[in-house]
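Worked Example 4.2. Consider the chain below.
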Amino acid sequence: MPNSNILPIFFYVYILHSQKDSNNYIGYTTNLRRRLEEHRKGYSFATKFRLPFKLIYSELCCNEQDAKQREKYLKTTKGRRFLAKRLRNWLLANRNIWHLD
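Applying the procedure from the previous section yields the following structure tokens:
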């Protein structure tokens, strides 16, 4: 019988939208709430000068390698096109703040 005390580890791929410069940050983590709080408090060098941020997208992966590959893909031109389609309704509501570069 499996041990019910062991919690599975999930990996989150997420996208933050900077309300300061309208650019996006793509990353992955095992604890999305903690990581978002770190970004909000300016603990991440990559994002601390671009605060505030809004979480606009996240995905759940069961494997770290899958999360890393997904993060890498979303940073490519093809991945950004996927996001533009996936986030179509959000983009329409926020037309002037999305950059595909």
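Residues 11-95 form a domain with the GIY-YIG endonuclease fold (CATH 3.40.1440). The longest helix spans residues 64-74. Compare this with Example 4.1 before moving on.
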